[in-house]
Amino acid sequence: MYRTMTRARACEMRLRKGFASGEFAGVIWPSRGQEAIAGGLSTALRRDDRLVTTYRGIHDLIAKGVPPAEILGEVLGRSAGASRGKGGTMHITCPEVGVMLSTGIVGAGPPVAAGLALAAKRSGGDRVVAVTFGDGATNTGSFHEAVNLAAVWALPLVLICQNNQYAEMTPVADTMRVERVADRAAGYDIPGLRVDGNDPVSVHNGLLEAVDRARSGGGPTLVECLTFRFSGHYFGDPQPYIPEDEMARAMELDPFPRFERFLTEHGVSEQEPARVDAAAVAEIDAAMTEVLAGPLPPAGELDTDVYADMAGIPR
Prior knowledge:
By secondary structure, this protein is α/β, with parallel strands linked by helices. It has one domain: 3-Layer(aba) Sandwich (Rossmann fold). The chain has 10 helices and 8 strands. The strands form 2 sheets. A 6-stranded parallel sheet has the order 2-1-3-4-8-7, with helices on both faces. A two-stranded antiparallel ribbon has the order 5-6. Strand 3, helix 6 (141-152) and strand 4 form a beta-alpha-beta unit. Helix 1 (2-21) crosses helix 3 and helix 2 runs parallel beside helix 3 (58-64). It is globular, with a radius of gyration of 19 Å. The termini are far apart. Pfam families: E1_dh.
């Protein structure tokens, strides 16, 4: 879990460095502060389980096993990207490890995930589908429709709300009357759990409970991971809408120092977290070097993967 967290942080920080210095151009929607959710997610799902995530999902992609070069390449529009540079930050997919969709539309992930979960159920296996989204997505009609159908059909779906307390630039208190997103599960008669989104162990335990329930045929669960976003909505956002004292309090709960203390208290040497962190930085630096040394997509790439190849398909 800690290795996943450090790789996610290193990936974002390397992109930030490049944007800020002018080394390359691009945009990301930061997830710094939310890495513990990725840590717990990485150990709760199997490789063949499916994941649908959002434009603020680099840490989720790392958690599910997308190679860093494919993430960096996609953000920078390079041929090394998971979609050969055509998807960009918002639309990274990697079916080989179960990442079926990253969406740039708030609330668009749950309906697609419900469809994937229906397919999984009809196939007769025990595959689980997880979908991550922010607090703002739970105010959309698409969220309601997807959760309602998942509950009615008892689909193997785990709904993961990464409640970073701001829907883009609007605080949660201004968008909903309920204090706990998890309480919304009662409207669909499914379990709703709230876990500490800054503690990967808490996230892992909550997600594992939901995954086990889905895998055994018990239907969907809504898991709310309460966390905080340490950066603006997008890279470069000055975030004047977040009070300084609120940000200061949130950063005191940074998941890294806390989990490092947990590890050392449970027998991990004090030097090991630093070693793992350094290894993550080196891995991401090497991946970035590979991406930047590679080619840009050729013009002919525009015409590929646009329409299905109908050759050999019965009509």
